[in-house]
Design brief:
By secondary structure, the chain is an alpha+beta fold. Among the domains are: about 55-280, no CATH class; about 440-460 and about 685-819, no CATH class; about 485-670, no CATH class. It starts with a helix and ends with a helix.
Length: about 800
């Protein structure tokens, strides 16, 4: 321990004599360790940390599959009837609950209603999670019937917001959707159920606030009997002890296949089971691991740079080490003394890095996509500090071990007897430095290719033809969650239609509004309401019928969105008496009538027959990455309870947004208007994940490139300084200065070429892992690879030119007179 203490004191004294090197090394390590710590804390919170439920590793989500449509929809939401059958017959499932996303219009006093997110759940939902209420109770089985379902369980945050945390809230009512609902329970403060989408497995449903209200799920009569429709639920299950996900998948899939065969269904059903954590983070899991790998690569490049600098310092201190060895220091002691400097640098850099990680996490969270699950839980805790400490030790070993081992290979007697330690040292260390630079170049080109592929993919998403114009368009969401709009028969439909008509008349009368229309689904939120298109003149089995997304729209929709109408005409108000017209997107028309003119033809979708009155361009209103087929129907035949107003107006969108809200509340002050924003904002949100990974990867790629440049420059500059006498001799014997420049550039070309070759081959193998993250970009995209290699070649040789030029300016007389 005394020797170790002396070595640390010696290392600190040495670093104090080289403040420039010490500050550079500490900052480099701090940035690398801090970035890795920050990204790992995000990965830990989002992917690795178990959910706060009892034995969370036993919680799974199962989804159904339909073999006939598996090429387009690999998995589907669950059918209520099939859920009951699987839950009853399964031997691997301890229990299973069914649930569905829901929105609640909650009103307090005279204020306008606010939309609160929540779930409709079966009575055993909380029991499956292993969570009980903080106060009160959860649902009783009898409350899953109409007339008995006027009860709710609320979250801790809703309890504080609506009742100020008063225990007397139990038994009191909340006005939800215009009706009084009795609060029977309050969930614990730590309860947070993750957001999930019914339609797409592993896809986060966008920017969704926490679930705060839970109501009993009351199935409709048709949902209890339908086999080939009503796939609109999610199932949460708990595995029995000792049962694996694979075992459960095998059993449930077998039960489902046997059920479809025994009941002679027209489709072949199956089941897929996923752990809850993977279901929630499916869309973000690979990008986060990619970011962690990228920042770890940057840290590795920084370590290589510092190892090169440390190797140079060790070479400079070779005579000191030789003298210590001659005085009796053993190899272990020499190794310890050389490694001590790296430990000191890493310790200070690691501590500084942890401090930077706090700021880094804030920066990451600020630019993270809004749909990143559990992002509010990201913070530095003791496990992260232990990780940072372990990373610091590994960094110290990575930075210091190679130079320390390299210094032990030198012969003390030979060093002490050498006339010029500089020439001797240059000869001894050149191969080691070249190897490190080559490896650094390989890591850099690999990261640059990853970055170029992701950036090129993102650019293609943004630059493609969308066939709609989002500029100067405001989207206003209105939830008609009030009893007057939810009456059975024609009464509720007429009330919804009347509200939409009055709102459109008011909005169109505003001089700042060019066009106003409605649609039934928020643009760019993925596929939904997907049904088969059936032709009476060309009948096909259910599994072979082409499918399309249904969207209910009003007149002026195509004008407001600036979607070209290729044939036919747009809906008009005079057609209210003939609500059976439909407009198809070009892709929907092609798949339903390949090679034919569909205008005037009839088809059946969702149980009703329509006549094709128009063909619209393939606008990417479902997803910017795909032009899914769409069938547009006039809204008045079935007005939705959630209406999206699309208003194209003047450049002053803020003033127009206030006017829209005011007009809507003047018609009915009890409707909820949870969202008013520009359509451009919705476009940005739809690609937030791709933008996030492109921004962060680009930052890491630039950092890696800068470090590689510094590495090439530093190694060559030091090599030139050691070979000054050699260059003087060459010039004295007639060598030209241009020849010296070529000599130094040739020395640089060897590790750069080796690194580019090894890194490029590795990239061709590794980029296949990110194939699913790329849009219309192949992992072997020649443009991305050529750009990465060309950029690194350019900056690498630019960095080599400075030492080469310095070598050509060597004064032969001064160099020859050096000892």
């Amino acid at each position: 321990m005394a020797n170790l203490s002396n070595d640390f004191h010696y290392a600190i004294r040495g670093l104090r004599k080289s403040p420039g090197f010490a500050v550079t090394a500490i900052l480099t390590l701090a940035l690398g360790i801090g970035a890795v710590t920050a990204v790992f804390s995000i990965v830990n919170s989002v992917l690795l940390r178990p959910y706060p439920f009892r034995e969370a590793n036993q919680l799974v989500v199962w989804r159904e599959t339909i073999q006939e449509v598996s090429d387009r929809y690999p998995v589907l939401p669950d059918n209520y009837k099939h859920y009951l059958n699987l839950r009853t017959r399964s031997k691997t499932i301890a229990d299973a609950a069914i649930f569905q996303n829901a929105s609640f219009a909650v009103a307090q006093g005279q204020d306008h209603p606010q939309i609160v997110n929540g779930l409709s759940v079966s009575s055993n939902f909380f029991a499956v999670l292993g969570t009980g209420p903080a106060i009160g109770r959860t649902f009783l089985p009898d409350e899953l019937r109409k007339g008995r379902n006027n009860v709710v369980v609320i979250s801790w945050s809703a309890w504080q917001r609506f009742f100020d945390g008063d225990v007397a809230a139990l038994g009191r009512s909340l006005k939800i959707g215009g009706e009084q609902k009795v609060v029977v329970g309050v969930l614990p403060r730590t309860f947070a159920f993750p957001a999930m989408s019914e339609m797409v497995a592993g896809a986060n449903p966008g920017k969704v606030s926490a679930y705060e209200i839970f109501q009993p799920l009351v199935p409709q009569d048709e949902e209890l009997t339908a086999d080939d429709s009503d796939f609109g639920f999610l199932v949460l299950a708990r595995l029995k002890s000792g049962i694996s996900v694979k075992d459960s998948t095998t059993e449930l899939d077998g039960i489902e296949k046997a059920y479809s065969l025994s009941n002679h269904l027209s489709v072949h059903l199956g089941v897929v089971v996923e752990p809850l954590a993977e279901e929630v983070t499916g869309s973000i899991r690979k990008p986060l691991w990619l970011l962690l790998a990228a920042v770890a690569g940057v840290l590795l490049i920084a370590c290589i740079n510092l190892a090169c600098l440390q190797l140079a310092r060790c070479v400079a201190h070779n005579q000191d080490n030789a003298l210590r060895a001659a005085l009796g220091a053993g190899r272990k002691r020499l190794f310890q003394a050389t490694l001590a400097e790296s430990l000191v640098l890493s310790a200070v850099g690691g501590l500084t890095g942890v401090l930077l990680a706090f700021a880094g996490i804030r920066a990451f969270v600020a630019i993270a996509p809004a749909n990143l699950p559990r992002v509010e839980e990201v913070h530095i805790n003791w496990p992260i500090l232990v990780f940072a400490a372990a990373l610091t030790v590994l960094t110290a070993l990575a930075v210091g071990s190679f130079p320390a081992l390299r210094s032990l290979q030198s012969e003390p007697q030979q060093i002490l007897q050498a006339r010029s330690t500089r020439i001797f040292s240059a000869r001894e260390a050149t191969a080691s430095r070249r190897f490190l630079v080559g490896f650094e170049i390989a890591c850099t080109v690999l990261l640059l290719i990853f970055t170029s592929l992701v950036a090129r993919s993102f650019a293609r998403i943004l630059s493609q033809n969308r066939a709609f114009d989002s500029n100067q368009v405001i989207v206003a969401q209105v939830n008609l969650l009030n009893p007057r709009y939810d009456q059975g028969g024609d009464s509720g439909s007429h009330a919804r239609s009347s509200f939409v008509d009055r709102a459109l008349d008011r909005l169109r009368a505003n001089p700042s509004v060019q066009f106003a229309a409605v649609t039934s689904t928020m643009p760019l939120t993925g596929e939904s309401n997907v049904y088969g298109i059936h032709r009476a003149d060309h009948p096909l089995p259910e599994d072979e019928a082409p499918t399309a997304n249904l969207r209910n729209i009003s007149p002026q929709y195509f004008a407001a969105m600036r979607i070209p109408l290729l044939a036919g005409q747009e809906f008009e108000e005079k057609e209210r008496d003939h609500p059976d017209d439909a407009i198809l997107s070009e892709k929907a028309a092609k798949v339903a009538w390949p090679g034919e003119n569909p205008l005037g033809r009839t088809f059946r979708i969702n149980g009703r027959t329509y006549t094709v009155s128009g063909i619209a361009a393939d606008a990417r209103i479902i997803d910017l990455k795909s032009d899914a087929p769409v069938v547009y129907l006039p809204y008045w035949h079935d007005p939705p309870s959630t209406v999206l107003f699309l208003v194209r107006g003047s450049p002053s969108l803020e003033g127009l947004a206030s006017a829209i809200r005011r007009e809507l509340w003047e018609i009915d002050p009890e409707v909820a208007v949870p969202t008013i924003k520009g359509l451009n904002s919705q476009v940005d949100e739809s690609v937030s994940t791709e933008r996030f990974q492109t921004m962060v990867l680009s930052g890491f790629g630039i950092a890696a490139l800068m470090l590689a440049v510094l590495g090439v420059y530093g190694v060559l500059a030091y090599s030139v300084s050691l070979r000054e006498q050699e260059f003087g001799v060459r010039l004295a014997f007639g060598s030209t200065r241009s020849a010296l420049i070529r000599l130094v550039l040739l020395e640089a070309s060897s590790p750069i070429a080796a690194g580019l070759t090894f890194g490029g081959v590795t990239a061709l193998l590794a980029t296949r892992w990110i194939r699913s993250l790329l849009y219309e970009t192949t992992p072997a995209d020649p443009a991305a690879i050529a750009f990465s290699v060309g950029l690194l070649l350019l900056v690498g040789f630019a960095a080599a030119l400075i030492p080469a030029y310095r070598a050509s300016k060597t004064d032969p007389m001064r160099a020859l007179h050096q000892n």
